[in-house]
Design goal:
Radius of gyration: 30 Å
Strand order of the largest sheet: 2-3-1-4
Number of strands: 7
Largest sheet: 4 strands, antiparallel
Helix content: 40-55%
Oligomer: single chain
Distance between the termini: 80 Å
Number of helices: 16
């Protein structure tokens, strides 16, 4: 439930109560007050979340009405006392108006917004530069991406061009600042080569699109759920949204400063994929839960903007996925290494010469022009009673592994290193 304070000229209190009557207020307190020397009535109503917007629409006809929506959940206990446990568990979603206004209130000053973007970028750079994974998590707490991301989705669902452009501007401003700060720090500290964590961040999986879709859905649900019914904190959702944006944005700046345009393109692809995916899923969630073009105290939405914006977002998402799956292996490296590693395990298991001890498949840090280098290191143990020399075992396995990778039609250069290990002799 939500609490509303309604201030009306003397004599209009009855109209307020009549408008509220269909919504079954849990409690109504009336008292006299003065406003600029004129007598007024102040009415406090406890109203169910889903009825807030309808009540406000009914109160619009009352002249000089002042309404204060107090965005805190209340526990309205009605008689009989035995039903109190059922009453407090009846928690409904926020009203569409409250979702919209909460999104507007989350827009802070530009100075603070860009300040957090700079600090977040510094922490991202330190994490990527020093291969410190927990610093990336810290940067996700600081990076101010969640607010603009959710406001873009709310503006899409509402059809609000003003909020849409303002949110998009803040969105890309924060991302641009993050890229520039990361690039500047890379140049100042004279970084010469990409780090391991940069390489891992640049690797894209075939299922990468699921992260922004999940982040957008979770963000939308978090804003819709009532205070006490939300099982996940808003900070956690903010981390999830920033997790899909902060590291790739920092990667673009660092890779650009190093001249590693292959990694910069990968990071830019990830940033675009996150933006489109988050907006698509979050806007659908908001629309599903009643955030429409028109509502109480809101009449600037354009009816055609929602299908138009959602259609453009869907086309962009399809275009990015088409680009991803047509650019093998650049945008599928993470998935390819897992698939090739599994194939190598199957190949070695089917041979009678050796048993697989361990394997590592990865794309190399160094960038050889015109070549996607896939480094494969295999450790095997000789089978009992196999007398074939180590060199012949290595050559045979190397040939078979390279042949299998080439038969997949992948645009990679497989460099294979096979190490044959012998167990210690059995003591007599």
């Amino acid at each position: 439930m939500r609490q509303l304070q309604i201030r009306v000229p003397r004599g209009r209190r009855k109209a307020v109560m009549e408008a509220a009557q269909p919504y079954h207020p849990a409690n109504a307190i009336q008292f006299e007050a003065t406003d600029s020397g004129q007598p007024v009535d102040v009415v406090f109503l406890h109203i169910a979340n889903q009825n807030v917007e309808n009540l406000l629409q009914d109160l619009e006809s009352i002249p000089e009405v002042h309404i204060t929506l107090i965005p805190r959940g209340v526990m309205a206990l009605q008689p009989p006392p035995s039903e109190a446990p059922d009453q407090v568990t009846d928690v409904t979603e926020r009203s569409p108006l409250e979702i919209f206004l909460a999104g507007l209130q989350s827009v802070g000053s530009w100075r603070g917004f860009l300040g957090y973007a700079v600090i977040g970028a510094v922490v991202v750079w330190i994490g990527l530069f020093t291969n410190t994974i927990y610093l990336l998590t810290a940067s996700m707490l600081i990076a101010p991406f969640a607010g603009p991301a959710m406001n873009v989705a709310i503006a899409t669902a509402r059809g609000d061009t003003t909020l849409l452009w303002r949110s998009v501007l803040r969105y890309f401003s924060a991302i641009t600042v993050s890229m520039l700060v990361a690039a500047l720090l890379t140049l100042i500290f004279r970084q010469q080569s990409a780090t391991t964590l940069m390489m891992e961040t640049a690797e894209i999986s075939a299922v990468s699109v699921l992260l922004p879709l999940s982040a957008g859905t979770a963000g939308g649900l978090n804003l819709i759920q009532s205070d006490r019914s939300s099982l996940v904190s808003g900070a956690s959702i903010g981390i999830l949204v920033a997790a899909s944006l902060a590291p790739p944005a920092g990667l673009v700046g660092m890779a650009g400063a190093l001249g590693r345009w292959d990694m910069a393109v990968n990071g830019l692809f990830l940033v675009l994929l996150q933006l489109v995916g988050i907006n698509f899923s979050a806007a659908l969630v908001f629309r599903l839960f009643g955030v429409n073009v028109r509502g109480a105290r809101y009449d600037r939405g354009r009816k055609m903007l929602f299908p138009l914006n959602l259609g453009v977002t869907a086309i962009a998402l399809i275009g990015l996925l088409t680009w991803q799956f047509s650019s093998t292996p650049n945008f599928q490296r993470s998935s390819l290494t897992q698939r090739i590693s599994a194939d190598i395990g199957t190949l070695v298991d089917n041979t009678e010469l050796v048993k697989l001890v361990d394997s590592e498949v990865r794309f190399t840090k160094t960038n050889i022009k015109g070549q996607n280098t896939l480094l494969t290191m295999i450790y095997v143990q000789r089978q009992p009673n196999v007398t074939l020399p180590d060199d012949q075992i290595r050559q045979r396995l190397t040939r078979e592994i390279q042949s299998q990778i080439r038969d997949r039609g992948l645009n990679v250069t497989p460099l294979v290193s096979v190490t044959v290990l012998d167990p210690p002799p059995v003591s007599q």
